[in-house]
Amino acid sequence: MTTTVTAVGGQGSTAPAAVAARLTGVTHHFGEASRPPVLDRIDLTVAPGEFVCLLGASGCGKSTLLSLVAGLDEPVSGTVEVPGGRPALMFQEPALYPWLTAAGNVELALRLRGLARAERREEAQRLLTLVRLEGSGPKRVHELSGGMRQRVALARALAQEGDLLLMDEPFAALDAITRDVLHEELTRIWTETGRAVIFVTHNVREAVRLGQRVVLLSSRPGRVAREWAVDIPQPRRIEDPDVSRLSAEITEDLRQEIARHGH
After folding, report:
1. Which range marks the domain in which residue 144 is found?
2. Is pTM beyond 0.85 here?
3. Where is coiled-coil annotated (predicted)?
């Protein structure tokens, strides 16, 4: 059995990481070893600054894979390498602290990094401006719309300063118009920050709109079934013909995977 190896770059390191994340032969299961694995021999490499979308049916292990990359769990076997430091993780729910303001939620991540109070305030305002929430720093969570809350959660994730951002269906609970706006905003922020992103979704068109690469996982156990390079210039729209064509191709493969595994 090979345990997780997570290499974390130090502050004194000047050479850029060769990869943002690398999974090699990763297998994972819950409970007794005799139970079928959730993930089976996953090999996946994410380049620095790359936007990768993970796609698959419910229960195929997408969120489990993110947890392993985030260091929240260790695989039964295989290695997980994240050379750029601990990645930030953003969930479907914003998970904001309701007793803090929007700025206070962002500053909390900065405080954990050890920034002084004046630096925290300045950096929190910069990040809120980056996510188009300038002027909203003093607002409490209950004063924010669902889309605004997710923007605060994104600003808080960016405040963690890792080279890799993990996003677990962050827009799934939002209405179509808000989700469309946040697709545009995420693409802009990704371009401006140069962070690598691993984005989990059930939505094929969302994956094609956002990602440079779409990775399809099979079901029970999760394996890399197929990958697509998305050679469509940004900015993209959900309704673009090229997005529709590639989405139709990926959807057919997804349907075949679901049929093959009986769910």
Report:
1. 96-161
2. yes
3. none
